[in-house]
Design a protein that fits this description.
This protein is of the alpha/beta class. The protein has 2 domains: about 170 residues, Rossmann fold; about 55 residues, no CATH class. The chain has 8 helices and 9 strands. β1 and β2 form a beta hairpin. The longest helix has 18 residues. The radius of gyration is 18 Å and the shape is globular.
């Protein structure tokens, strides 16, 4: 494992690089992390999986997006477009080292970012690995905003806030603090509008979804099953 910094705009990105045993490599996997505290809670499992991929011959890159982790910038300055540009920066870094094939491995809302990036490069064929994917940005943001609503209830806030009211503020360009994170409308507004749809056919080599369920007989999420059915019908 090698800690590195990757040049990017508007600030350098910290990343962990897991090279394969071979000195040269042609295949790489970029991990696209989850949102806010979910990213931190998943770090150990993501690192363990990265080591396994490296042993299988992949170069694996785990970047902290702008404003997160040890990368430059504050979370409140992050935007959706900056995070999309971050993916271009890490792809360029890998390609400059001879990588020919780069696949995406998204976690939670990182899956939405990966799918959004596919629209930028619809002609690039990749493998897609999605862990517990968020497929509806508005639902995800709503659940995150409930943390602030719940905190207000515990503090006997009067009048109480609602998720609908908080979303409206974000749509009007007002930054909000939720669970210690400053939410930039330029980050949240695009997320509110995102929903997983058809992937460009040319952009998909293989796609795999992994979800954690409470029991072996428990089915995965209905949203993921419906999305896969829509993809298979194309």
């Amino acid at each position: 494992m090698q800690p590195i910094f990757i040049p990017a705009s508007p600030g350098a990105l910290f990343a962990l690089f897991f090279p394969p045993p071979e000195t040269t490599f042609k295949r790489a996997i970029i991990h696209i992390p989850a949102f806010a505290e979910e990213m931190h809670k998943a770090r150990r499992m993501v690192n363990l999986q990265a080591r396994q991929f490296a042993q299988q011959g992949y170069a694996v890159l785990l970047p902290d997006l702008f404003g997160t982790g040890d990368s430059a910038g504050d979370f409140g300055a992050a935007s959706w477009d900056i995070w999309l540009d971050n993916l271009t920066a890490v792809i360029d870094w890998l390609q400059a080292r001879g990588t020919e094939s780069i696949d995406f491995w998204g976690l939670r809302s990182g899956c939405l970012l990966a799918l959004a990036y596919a629209a930028r490069e619809p002609q690039i064929r990749r493998n897609w690995l999605l862990w517990q994917p968020v497929l509806n940005g508005e639902s995800f943001v709503t659940r995150f905003l409930r943390l602030r609503v719940a905190a207000g209830v515990m503090a006997n806030q009067n009048p109480p806030e609602t998720t609908a009211g908080l979303k409206q503020q974000l749509l009007e360009g007002v930054s909000l603090e939720v669970a210690g994170y400053s939410l930039n409308p330029a980050l949240i507004q695009p997320m509110l509008a995102l929903q997983a749809g058809p992937l460009p056919v040319a952009a998909v080599a293989e796609l795999a979804i992994f979800e954690v369920v409470s029991a072996p007989e428990q089915p995965g999420s209905a949203a993921a099953a419906q999305w896969l059915a829509e993809l298979q019908a194309l």
